[in-house]
Batch of 2 targets.
Target 1
Amino acid sequence: MGKDDIPHNKVLALADNGQDLKVTAVTHAQISDLCCDCLDYSNTAKSTLTAMNVEEGSGEESYAPLLAKVKSDSREFPSTLLEEHKRAARKGAIILGSFLAVFAGISIAVLQKVVAFVMGIFQ
């Protein structure tokens, strides 16, 4: 099955407030259609959506009836989450930088030994 092939017996399902749906294949075209369709529904402005394909009889043929029912997220976004993310990113950058410095030092040392060995062979 190609990346944009969905079985014919599948229809659209949508969950708001970041709720889960059973994971299924969703095409790029379906997601782009959903993003464009959301622009016509002001109730989707502050909502986290999950979109999947489900069996016939448990979904819709288009996103319109699903988007009309979307509610804004009821979960609070922790104000400290962004700062926690920034701290974690800085810490990760320091660890990665340290790893790269050690790796570069070892690589230079090995390269120097290889060059010295090769130069010794040709002298």
Note: Residues 1 and 7 are 9 Å apart (CA to CA).
Target 2
Amino acid sequence: MLAIPGIGPVVAAGWLASTALGAAAVGTAGGLIGALTQSGVSERDANVYAEGVRRGGTLVTARVPDIDRARYEAILDRSAINITERSAMWERNGWNRFDPAAPNYTPDEIRRERELYRTRL
């Protein structure tokens, strides 16, 4: 368990957790955003992923050999949400980027958010 600035306490391990802690230690905005952008994720996508975590989502990352990439993506896609559709919904409701000062969602807010997506399937 570690605390990422702007995200709060999270369970993390591996390369991204180390990068996030390093980014937080040197004051990189958002910790998680800094870790993602340092690893090659666009700033736009990093903001979307950080917002998803703030709203109660889970971000799973893995470094794998290029030859295995398609296989691992297929495994991860089995239960993944469509982040493009999800972030478009947030944008329609006024969101434009991750705000590290915004409070994390409460358990009740997370339940309401998840119910909103269930009704749209």
Note: The longest strand covers residues 2-4.
